[in-house]
């Protein structure tokens, strides 16, 4: 969907070029598609800090669009780009977990130094307009019940001893005098220690010598924290469970922007109200008590799981609620995974000419053509219609290049049939394709 110019709060979007939807097409087509969707700022999800597509940055920048790098703080989904010995970086949790995500310890100096070095190099080599470290926190919201609670490994234990002069709480043995429910003073010390660890981890990556800001002076920085609609004091709950204190984080890191990330207990809800951000006011208020002016944005998820895919209408209402709540911008994960990708047909949105006989059409989504010719209808300014066939010279993402000697030299309208979207590139498989509706026209300029 297209957004109005100069919105009260800027629409931005996350995209991950590792998805099939962005593969096998030009960088220019990716940039054109997101631009046609109304976005002037995009957030490039960098899953491998050592592999960045500079052509994508150039394509966006040539259109006057801004590109932020979004990297993960507390782990990685793939390890092929990591150096030898990365296994020692991993957190220890209450129970072993094998869910495809590798969680790394904030207290591993080897991990922190590697991360700082690779981010420094990345921003020196690639002209990102901003950088943000998403998910810098500890796992997990329901960690005590699920067992996905950490870090309680040797790096963390040694760091807590140095910090407090005592042993950390015991989270397993209920009979221990150090069991976290028996010794509230020790447990509160542990909570403060974890908050400090998250914030100093970010400070080291961003502000320390050899960090991001020294790699690209002037680059904009955003910090991320969690927000959730849960309980009487969700701010304290997030602090306790995951080491997140947004106000303190901002004080330590000194970012240009701050983002409230929608926590999974909210985004996984199939019937999540589009205005749910109203319930995040406690998190905004906690920040505003110390930081009156910092721009705050909010992030949502529009389709990571099948039951909670959001429609364009839902996203429009979410954007309106975000503006009403005073957020300066919003973003969503991830551009191509929302409900509209599965339900809406591709639409021709813009056309250009390459001489009299060649036309390029840019559509609202990625397209495909199953033959080397498509049926067309040419409608002149006098409303005269001529039907025929056009040769398909190239399909590139959302771009269709046609050759037809019958194209008029003057301005005309064009209808195209036989052009479909690409379910083979969607996140969820097994859904039918949709064709451009035969009655939809696009205006072709004069030569």
Write a short abstract of this structure:
This protein is of the alpha/beta class and 447 residues long.
Put simply, the count of helices is 13
Strand content: 15-25%
Largest sheet: 8 strands, parallel, barrel
Fraction of helical residues: 25-40%
The chain-level structural class is: alpha/beta
The low-confidence runs, each spanning 5 or more residues with pLDDT under 50, are none
Give the tally of β-strands: 19
Radius of gyration: 25 Å
Strand order of the largest sheet: 1-2-3-6-7-8-9-10
Overall body shape: elongated
On the 0 to 100 scale, the average pLDDT is 96
Measured between the Cα atoms of the first and last residue, the distance is 29 Å
Description:
The protein has about 450 residues and is of the alpha/beta class. The strands form 4 sheets. Strands 1-2-3-6-7-8-9-10 form an 8-stranded parallel β-barrel, surrounded by 4 helices. It is about 30% helix and about 25% strand. The longest helix is centred in the middle third of the chain and has 24 residues, at about 185-205. It is elongated.
């Amino acid at each position: 969907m297209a957004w109005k110019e100069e919105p009260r709060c800027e629409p931005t979007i996350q995209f991950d070029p590792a998805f099939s939807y962005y593969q096998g097409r030009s960088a220019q087509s990716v940039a054109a598609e997101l631009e046609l969707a109304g976005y002037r700022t995009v957030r490039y999800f960098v899953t491998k800090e050592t592999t960045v597509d500079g052509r994508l940055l150039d394509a966006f920048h040539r259109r006057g669009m801004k590109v932020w790098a979004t990297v993960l703080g507390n782990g990685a989904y793939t390890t092929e780009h990591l150096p030898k010995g990365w296994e020692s970086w991993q957190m220890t949790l209450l129970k072993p977990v094998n869910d495809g995500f590798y969680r790394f310890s904030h207290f591993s100096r080897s991990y922190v130094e590697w991360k700082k070095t690779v981010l420094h190099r990345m921003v020196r080599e690639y002209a990102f307009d901003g950088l943000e470290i998403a998910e810098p926190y500890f796992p997990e919201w329901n960690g005590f019940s699920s067992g996905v609670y950490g870090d309680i490994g040797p790096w963390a234990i040694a760091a807590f001893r140095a910090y407090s002069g005592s042993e950390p709480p015991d989270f397993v043995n209920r009979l221990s005098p150090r069991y976290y429910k028996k010794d509230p003073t020790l447990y509160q010390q542990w909570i403060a220690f974890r908050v400090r660890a998250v914030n100093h981890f970010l400070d080291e990556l961003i502000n320390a010598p050899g960090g991001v800001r020294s790699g690209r002076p002037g680059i904009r920085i955003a910090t991320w924290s969690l927000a959730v609609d849960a309980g009487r004091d969700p701010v304290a709950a997030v602090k306790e469970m995951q080491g997140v204190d947004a106000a303190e984080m901002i004080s330590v890191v000194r970012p240009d922007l701050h983002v409230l990330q929608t926590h999974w207990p909210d985004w996984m809800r199939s019937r999540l109200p589009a205005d749910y951000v109203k319930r995040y006011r406690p998190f905004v208020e906690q920040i505003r008590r110390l930081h009156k002016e910092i721009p705050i944005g909010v992030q949502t998820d529009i389709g990571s799981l099948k039951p909670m895919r959001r429609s364009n209408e839902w996203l429009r209402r979410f954007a309106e609620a975000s503006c009403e709540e005073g957020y300066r911008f919003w973003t969503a994960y991830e551009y191509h995974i929302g409900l509209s990708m599965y339900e809406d047909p591709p639409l021709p949105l813009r056309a250009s000419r390459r001489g009299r006989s060649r036309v390029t059409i840019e559509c609202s989504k990625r397209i495909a053509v199953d033959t080397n010719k498509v049926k067309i209808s040419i409608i002149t300014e006098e409303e005269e219609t001529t039907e025929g066939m056009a040769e398909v010279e190239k399909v590139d993402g959302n771009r269709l290049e046609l050759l037809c000697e019958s194209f008029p030299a003057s301005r005309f309208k064009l209808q195209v049939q036989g052009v479909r979207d690409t379910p083979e590139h969607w996140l969820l498989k097994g859904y039918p394709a949709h064709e451009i509706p035969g009655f939809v026209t696009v205006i072709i300029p004069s030569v």
